[in-house]
Amino acid sequence: MKIRITILCENLVGRLVGSGEHGFSAFIETDRGNYLFDTGGGRSIVSNSLILNKDLKSIKQIFLSHGHYDHTGGLSEVLKVKGKADVHAHPHVFLDRIAVLKEEDRETKRFIGIHYKRRYLESLGAHFILNTDFTEVEKGLFLTGEVPRQTTFEKPDPRLFSEMDGKTTHDLFLDDQSLVLDTDKGIVLILGCAHAGMINIIHHVINKMGKENFHAILGGTHLDFLTPEQLEESIKLLKKMEVQKIGVSHCTGMRAAFRLHQEFGDRFFYGCVGSVLEV
Ligand SMILES: [Fe+2]
Ligand SMILES: [Fe+2]
Description:
By secondary structure, the chain is an alpha/beta fold. The protein has seven helices and 18 strands. It has helices at residues 45-51, 69-72, 75-82, 118-123, 198-209, 228-240, 254-264; strands at residues 3-9, 25-30, 33-37, 59-63, 85-89, 96-103, 106-111, 126-130, 135-138, 141-143, 160-164, 167-170, 179-183, 186-191, 213-220, 242-249, 268-270, 276-278. The strands form three sheets. A seven-stranded mixed beta sheet has the order 8-5-4-3-2-1-18. The termini are close together. 46% of the residues are buried.
């Protein structure tokens, strides 16, 4: 399977065209059709798709990594262009989400969940297919479903909360799932925000695929928002794995990206708007 992955939405711009925004989206072209993983926050996906020459109408299926607004906010815009489309996600993608942040010595609460009601998105053409388990969506293309939390050092972001049955609790992010492409050169893993823990996700993929060779790991890793210990422990384990390319984006953060570059050298690249990986 020939694959070309283009970063459509990301915090930074890399090829002198397009707009950056806090969010993530990857456009995946294959011999069998085109797919969209996440939709960014909504401000840049349509304009970036036009300027990068990626036809949103050609998308066969849409995948959502989790319910945060910066990954789901562009879904309505994509549907307005595309019309009817299968949208794969975990059932918790529709939960209300809140971030409690300390800003200028004040505590602020922000709504960071999906901005649209399911029925509105369905009225625009979304056909939701909800999964909780590791699923082969099409031949060679998998969604991880819920990821078992096994490492001791990967902890959920303590600033993030979700609401279920009227109760607000720390967000467990059961909906956090990643996309797996089984290629001739090895596995290509695309992360959304890796709220389940990057190493937990990799272990889950190895376990389910029965393979350990990763051609590339792309997307948001959330490494910079957590403790320095978690970052260093993640890097230590990552270095022991068979990973040929690591192209992080979005919630990885600059500090963690620099550390990954230090450790992985030429195998590292930053995935910004317009970055392309060809397999
Ligand atoms: Fe994110
Ligand atoms: Fe997120």
